[in-house]
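FORM 7B: Structural annotation worksheet

SECTION A. Query
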Amino acid sequence: MSMRTYSQTETDLAFQWVDKYFKLVELMLEISDDEETDIPPSKPSSESELKFQKLRHWFFAHEDKFMSIWSEFWRDKLPLKYFEDNVGGQEYFTNPFLMLYKPDNLCELAYRLGMSENIDTWEPTEKGADIIEDISVEFSLEVLQFIHYVGEFTEDSSDDRIAG
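SECTION B. Predicted structure
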């Protein structure tokens, strides 16, 4: 498989995308169950909703350019395990991030991820925190590998960009 190199613009986009992905994971952790208190999470605040909408808008605006970079890394992996339980999993097969930013709002996101019983109202489930943990830990490891991969094949790859 011949490797192409990524321009600085493509690399910057990849780094921005991943940064925003982690902001989205952070937001999901905020709205998921607090295991220490066993108190079901309260409805997301309007501030959280606004953060979600801004991230969602950004992902849709940059999706096409990002997917051409991501697909080269992802095509050899395509792990079924993330998607087999998810309705409409095929759609998320090539773009697993879509699962997190396609929903219209945080209530719908929580419902789609199995964190809430209802698509329109906030009814947290018991297993919300476990689901988020799977996504934030397992998939995030793939995302970090992706950043390493892009960093390796960036034109004029200056080492200080990836140090950290």
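SECTION C. Observations
The chain is about 55% helix and 0% strand. Residues 8-34+43-155 form one domain.

SECTION D. Sign-off
Analyst initials: ____
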